[in-house]
Amino acid sequence: xxxxxxxxVDDSALMRNLVSRMVESVPGITxxxxxxxxxxxLEKIPSHxxxxxxxxxxxxxxxxxxxxxxxxxxxIHIPVIILSSIAHRGAAVTMECLELGASDFLLKPSNxxxxxxxxxxxxxxEMVHSYGGSYARKKGKKIPLxxxxxxxxxxxLAQAASDxxxxxxxxxxxxxxxxxxxxxxxxxxxxGPIEIIVFGIxxxxxxxxxxxxxxxxxxxxxxxxxxxxxxxxxxxxxxxxLNNICPLEVKEAAEGDVLKEGRILIAPGGYHVVVxxxxxxxxxxxxxxxxxxxxxxxxxxxxxxxxKEYQANALGIIMTGMGKDGxxxxxxxxxxxxxxxxxxxxxxxxxxMPRAAFELGAVQKQVPLNKMAETINELALKY
Length: 383
Prior knowledge:
The structure is a single chain. This protein has 383 residues and is of the alpha/beta class. The chain folds into two domains: 4-176, 3-Layer(aba) Sandwich (Rossmann fold); 196-382, 3-Layer(aba) Sandwich (Rossmann fold). The chain is built from eleven helices and 16 strands. The protein has helices at residues 13-24, 38-48, 64-73, 91-99, 117-138, 205-214, 235-243, 299-310, 327-336, 353-359, 369-382; strands at residues 4-9, 29-35, 52-55, 80-84, 104-107, 146-151, 171-176, 196-201, 224-228, 249-252, 263-266, 272-276, 283-287, 314-318, 339-343, 365-367. The protein has a seven-stranded parallel β-sheet with strand order 10-11-9-8-14-15-16, sandwiched between helices. A five-stranded parallel β-sheet has the order 2-1-3-4-5, with helices on both faces. It has a two-stranded antiparallel ribbon with strand order 6-7. Helix 2 (38-48) crosses helix 3 (64-73) and helix 9 (327-336) crosses helix 10 (353-359). The longest helix is centred in the first third of the chain and has 22 residues, at 117-138. The chain is globular and about 60 Å long.
């Protein structure tokens, strides 16, 4: 098998070293080059031909945002993962990078010795395998599809980037994904008119939603609620960026928001979102109950409320993402009689959440990303 080749771009030598140790702690990933700024990265791309770029935003000479602009001008398609501390205070910059073609983003740990460094390492390796692996396979490389399961690092594995850092980075064990087996669910009642559309989506979601929402029909009258796994502080900017390209209104959900016809609400980072049907108007509620399936917001929490309030009158959609969030309650939606869709394996960045739902029999139809908007439009306008 071939390796996924990584280019790390960061002006901090300590961070370049730390990120190298994070990604190379897992077999199948190799750091082929490092750069101190965007200009150096552009110069190194032709000779090193990386499969994925890990990019800081705040750098001298050429910032990460300026690099993304030059990348677009040069028609470079290598996937980019934003890893930056500026994202904490620069959500708009991060969203602009996504609009320019960045695949995803991740916040740096608050300091080199912080407790969340293991979580960052987990997510970064996941993203490198997801985006870099997909790009490498398109180049003809032999990169296996892996399933991820986090385990505690055993002694003797890679140390942290500096001698002062005593924390051990988590290790990911990989197993080649078995063939999915679906046991179709028999609904307890006939599907009724679609009164609400709900999405659950994670890794690969920002660009997938941009593609789908740009092609939604302006005639859709059902309210739409979306759970996209995203850190707190970013979903307002994300919703605003989607609103610029979608024929329907898109906004970050707020407590008590009315589920209006043809309006899309994005669950805020750090909050679960649930729906409630009332006599005069249906609304959404936000809460900070414990994470579910490791996430807040959680697609399962949203879907569970939709099962309770709408039963056979919803359209549930699960798309690209690691893990199983949304799968169990999408199954309950289908059992209640609602219609369900899942993104297909070939077009997913990570066929995790859709796969888990498919294997539970929760997905009536698997749809490629480039047909998702068309399928949603057809169902929403027909039913």
